[in-house]
Amino acid sequence: MCDSCASAAAAQEERPRAGLSRRGLLAGVGLGLGVSLGFVPGLTATASAASLKNGGWCNPALGYFPNGGHYGAPRGGASHAGQDITNSTGTAVYAAAAGTVIRREWGGGLGGRTGYGIVLSHGGGQYTYYGHLSVYRVGLNATVGAGQRIGDMGATGNVTGPHLHFEVHSGGLGVTTNPVTFMAGRGVDLGGGWSRIDAGARGKRVTAIQYLMTQRGYSLAADGYYGSVSVDAVKRFQAARGLVADGQVGPATWPHLVYTLQQGHSGNHVRALQTVLNKHSAGLVVDGGFGSVTTSAVRTYQSVNRLVVDGVAGAVTWRALVG
User: CA 26 → CA 1, 29, 75, 181, 321, distances in Å?
Assistant: First the structure.
């Protein structure tokens, strides 16, 4: 848990840099200056978006919420500015959404934070901060995709043990909000859990849904857009399974949709698996064949996320991958 990671008093503002070139809970009082850093394709909501659960956000790390690590917890007269997610050193940390690395330095250059940190800009006045890292896996100014590995969990700075200190800044850098509720509103169960994907969503999880639906006998184009044709097919699938036929692919639907897969399997369900592994930086050819390379990728993903390393993609591994 963070011993610091508190927002400083509002009097200390964050200034733009030259060349801007975790189940308990957690948060903080922001600093106060909004910085606009432009549009990030595929992330900023459009007027036609039916839901914020649009596939643009995902889980930054797997783990549990430690006691006292929630947003707003007292920190020496200030408030904890994020949510702590506890796991062991070396656990993978992923970009919560597509964006640009605008800071990669001690405390992310934010007052009251310590340890190696990364700040991502997502456009539209939204930022995320990843603190106490042990390793950086992206460089300053890098453009990253949602789910891309950007660092490893650690215990650098003023902490009592390894964890990710995760913050969401909405409305400007320094304007923090509760990461748990913010992410839940975007279909993400912070720390672990099945995602919720609504009509209008886009991205690799949607592509995976389409591959899985095709494997289930509903022929869909794997175009990554959760439009009316895909939504209608999911509603029919849900009705056939005795589920609420609302079209949302969430905790009630995912377990019925995924398969337990291992080396030797082939088909569109394997393509779905390869697609979500690639969301997390696996770099696989999406060929539908579960061979040794895909097995290695599954084992690596399980290892860096502290899951049982057996090379079998069962419900636990799927939940992590699509979370």
Answer: 10, 11, 11, 10, 24
